[in-house]
Amino acid sequence: MRERTTGTRQADGHPHVGITTTFLGMPTFQEAARVSLTDTVQRRNLAHATGVIREKRAAVVGELDNWEQLRLAAEAIKNRALFSLDEYLVEFEERATAAGATVHWARDAAEANRIVVDLARAKQAREVVKVKSMATQEIELNEALQAAGIDAWETDLAELIVQLGDDWPSHILVPAIHRNRSEVREIFLREMKKVGRPAPEDLTDDPPRLAEAARLHLREKFLRADFAVSGANFAIAETGSLVVVESEGNGRMCLSLPRTLVSVVGIEKVVPSWRDLEVMLQVLPRSSTGERENPYTSIWTGGAEGDGPQDVHIVLLDNGRTNVLADQVGRAALRCIRCSACLNVCPVYERAGGHAYGSIYPGPIGAVLTPQLRGTSSEIDQSLPYASSLCGACFDACPVRIDIPSLLVHLRTRVVEEHRGGVPKPEALAMKAAGWMFADHRRYEAAEKIASTGGKALRSPLLGRKEVLRQLPPPLNAWSGARDAPVPPSESFRSWWKRTDGGRLGPSEERE
């Protein structure tokens, strides 16, 4: 497994190095989830947090009698944008350029990072303040800036917790959802003094006190930094505007104080018109934070002389999105507006946590988006489409109606097709053997007789009249380790039907 260092420096200017693992090279989801399931503190944190968010969402969605119509409208808006993405992207570039912004196009993470680093170097920036952005985390921009000697500071409270804790985000909306407030207090006391204003020595785990410590720590960075990086929730083709919604006001600080602003925006974030935004701003906050509207919604179009950033840049990021768009089924994942509603209702995510997905995009949407963006060459990406029980709760919650269960099945098929040939896995061998048996009724009947004979023997008084097999022999013991395997029936349905003429014969009439 490769390692990376965090993008932070101590107050004296020396690097503050923390080691975490990168995503690629991780174990499969199933292996990582098995470890996560033993973390009882994380499971308790996740259950509490997702439960609270679900209740809030249900309350505000229940207020609307046209919620399903809004979902259908949001789906149609995103589909319209994706089906004519080439046209809307060009329109967005023209409008944004006319408003004074400079638009850059980035094929992949390396190109996007190079653009941002070059802009920062041209401005002689030594540090950067950042609005929460999953796109910049996807391309590992913080690491690229650090390699260039530039500090990148996360200003979202949860992202700050993750950064100071040398951690990875585990949730789309609440990246530090796996941490409780006692853990946050310890992180602030231990780490803040290494990279800036220290936390108060008498800091408690009271949420207002923790928020105050973060606010004071970040204030000096806001006032000092002259270069900011943001993402965007939406890009409006009609006007060339970018939209960021957030809850703390840190985004507003980053979008108004620095002289230079660079926004890294995935090409799928485009919506056709200003009017479309009205629908999206109804479904997004209700689905994400369980609020009727976000506390802070920032919209900007280029730069304005004497007000806010004077040098505005927009990096339109592909990084695999065009490949996703080419898949007529898989492209539905690009409708995602990063609300995290699917995570909050997913029983698998609630128990396994976000780190097990090995991606900046965890949960059900990550299980269908990540393998398409990165491909399925690694074991972690091959395993993600199987990180689901296919219960369908994610589709019911999704504000843009992404049919995630169908996408998971689609990607499972792709994984199987892409890895045909070579040395077959045990599962493939088992399926091949089952296919051989079911292909001929005589083989199937022979297998029934063997199973029935085994069932009679196991139910005999000599063996204790067993009804459940606690442990199967290898390699089936991996399956029975978490399940009770029933003892095969003493008689098959086929045999019973033949003996009783389909149930019409009584006990005294049964054929010998």
TrEMBL record:
Residues 474-512 are annotated as: Disordered. It holds the Pfam family Fer4_8. It comes from the Bacteria. It comes from Aeromicrobium piscarium. Keywords: 4Fe-4S, Electron transport, Iron, Iron-sulfur, Metal-binding, Repeat, Transport. Residues 498-512 have a biased composition (Basic and acidic residues). This is Iron-sulfur cluster-binding protein. Signal peptide: none annotated. Gene3D superfamilies: Alpha-helical ferredoxin, NagB/RpiA/CoA transferase-like. Residues 333-402 form the 4Fe-4S ferredoxin-type domain. The keyword Electron transport applies.
